[in-house]
């Protein structure tokens, strides 16, 4: 049976509200993968005056990230708005740079097995360095998937 995209099999979460990052870093919201098998991170660039800020992922055992450490990535995908082609790019370290291109979507996919679960690292967040003194617009959206239990997805019982 196909499950498709529905709120019984995925859970959306805001990673970072849309902002003008002029001179600012983006520290993403902490998301707990304890009951999920996958995490998709969608980085959306709007108007982009320049700069290629570094993107890193970190993991932690607590939401406050007092014990954070890097989380390695293998690939990311990019797509220009309206384009029919998505480009897959290998990552050779735990960091990569966003393109200096307006209206680009960059996607990362994390498997729960990528986390240091032996040491109870279940929390993940994305961090994006400052693109410099440019008026660059950016937002981050998380999509948690493959829940251990459908009941692990928070749903309003009154709806």
Give your account of this protein's structure.
The chain has strands spanning 10-20, 26-27, 31-32, 36-45, 54-60, 69-70, 75-80, 87-90, 95-97, 104-111, 123-128, 137-147. With 159 residues, the protein is mostly beta strands. It is 0% helix and 45% strand.
Task: Jot down its keywords.
159 residues, mainly beta, Jelly Rolls, six-stranded antiparallel beta sheet, 12 strands, 45% strand
Percent range for β-strand residues:
over 45%
Count up the domains: 1
Which architecture does the CATH hierarchy give at level 2?
A: Sandwich
Largest sheet: 6 strands, antiparallel
SSE pattern? EEEEEEEEEEEE
Structural class: mainly beta
Q: How do you describe this structure in short?
A:
The protein is mainly β. 0% of the residues lie in helices and 45% in strands.
Topology of this protein?
Blueprint: E1 10-20, E2 26-27, E3 31-32, E4 36-45, E5 54-60, E6 69-70, E7 75-80, E8 87-90, E9 95-97, E10 104-111, E11 123-128, E12 137-147
